[in-house]
Amino acid sequence: MSGTRKRATIRDVAEATDLSISTVSYALRGLQTSKKTQERVRRAAEELGYEADPIARALSSGKTGLVGVLCGSLEDLWQQAFAAGMGRALLAREHHALIMDAAGDPDREAALARKLRDQRVDGLVVCPLDPAAGLWAQLAETLPVVTVGDALAGGGTCGVLFDNRSGVRLALEHLHTLGHRRVAVLTSTPESTPDRPSDRRTASEAARLGLALTVVPTSHALPSATEAAHRILESPDRPTAVLCLSDSIAYGVYAAAAGLGLRIPRDVSVVGYDNHPVSALLTPPLTTVDWDLDRIISAVTDLILAGVEDEHFHRRITQRPSLRGGGSTGRPPR
User: Are 26 and 52 in contact (CB under 8 A)?
Assistant: First the structure.
């Protein structure tokens, strides 16, 4: 059709600069050429509207420029914020995030991890539902894998690991100091993967403090969290405090308490585990464990891109928490 502009090719750039095609290719990738030549080639490519063919570039370099970000559940607002932040951080360093959602299903998580590998991502970032799965060690043999939160089975992965012993201790000691002795824990850990560090630490810390603990699994989805919290709060011997191992789950406790006519913290205290920005807007603001999301995103980005570039990679960074006081905790009702 007349008026249709032909797409510029690398040959056009070579002719415009009087350089060979191979020299132009190296210059566009910043390899084996002077800075002056690279600038000259890039300027010509921009003027011609040349864009490198991503498939050809991947074939020649063995890299796609894609990093898989596999979230355990994007119904969790913290994981939403993490995924969005990773997308921005990777883009700033000329990579792209391919974000997938395991939707709280360990089997789906395993299938998506394999799919990302088969799509030739350069690396994989995972917020694992099942950190004990043997799959992770297999994947780490063929691509860099960075975990966020929990350590993965096998020795070939690295990541930013949460110091869950400190996180749970901060939350439960805070409640114990206020006088609480009956505490419910709402967790997103499925019954099929009971060996999560945060859940193990909760049980051991509660035993150390002499707390009567009730553990209730639920999803991050607000309706499910609200229903689980409603069952706890309407029981005759309801706990005086609820520790939620996700701020998203804590929002369900707020909804259930409002529906039952209970006041936070006068009738029940609530502690979260993320310090999501929404938590400061609640009435009262949520007391929560903060993991410093921005620092986590920065560290994970550095780790995964180091792995992509075949640099020193096998590192584990421990992320330590702090407790952000809100108005959602107080002394237990008399």
Answer: no
Q: What is the CATH number of domain 164-290?
A: 3.40.50.2300
Sign of the Cα pseudo-torsion (55, 60, 65, 71, in order): positive
> What whole-number distance in Å separates Cα of residue 51 and Cα of residue 292?
38
Q: What pLDDT is stored for residue 62 in this prediction?
A: 59
Strands 287-290 vs 322-324: parallel, antiparallel or unpaired: antiparallel
Task: Tell me if domain 66-163+293-321 and domain 164-290 are identical in fold.
Answer: yes
Sign of torsion, CA 227 229 232 236?
A: negative
Per-residue model confidence as pLDDT tens digits over 160-182: 999 999 999 999 999 999 999 99
- Report the 3 state secondary structure along 96-119: EEEEEECCCCHHHHHHHHHHHHHC
Query: 297 vs 64, 83, 149, 241, CA distance in Å?
Result: 21, 9, 12, 31
How confident is the model at residue 128, as a pLDDT? Answer: 92
* CATH code reported for the domain at 66-163+293-321: 3.40.50.2300
Q: What is the pLDDT of residues 11-63, one digit of tens each?
A: 888 999 999 888 887 787 676 788 889 889 888 988 888 776 554 555 455 57
Q: In whole angstroms, how large is the CA radius of gyration of the chain? A: 25
Q: Find out whether 186 and 244 touch, Cβ atoms under 8 Å.
A: yes
